[in-house]
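Researcher: Next entry in the queue.
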Amino acid sequence: MDCSFVRLCLTASMFIAGPTLAQEPTAASKRTEALHDAGRIATQPAQDVGVKKVVIPPVLQQAIAAPYGTKGAATCRQVAAGLSQLNKVLGPDFAAGAQYNEDRASKIAEAGGKTIVNSLLPFRGLVREVSGAAPAERRLNAAIDAGYARRGFLRGVQKARGCRA
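Model: Structure for this entry, 165 residues:
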């Protein structure tokens, strides 16, 4: 790959701002999210060819094994700890009544950055299947789904037991 093209891609991806749906983000959280997104987009070609491996966090691996299990949820403190671990990996939980705002300019910049970076690899879909990146991403997405299920289950346990949120 041409270094100047990679540099252009990295620079373009740095213009990506916060998440699609944000709960009144602060300027610092927007910058942090923008840097995270830029890094994720810039390293996508390395993931596509299998150089950078997708790692499923242990808390999500546990959620896959038993999303509705009560092991590790015997006390209110354990439930709260489990929710905290999931929130660190999945991001904040949905808050009823909270206002969600979409930053359209950020989403356009993100789409542009993805387009530039993804154009680096011709036949990207085929390469991702052959390299194992696509199956790894599917496993990660299944783990994230299990994490959401686990978090919902723990929220229900928390409420049923009358634990403090």
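Model: The helical segments are 3-13, 27-42, 44-48, 58-65, 76-90, 104-118, 124-131, 133-161.
Researcher: Noted, moving on.
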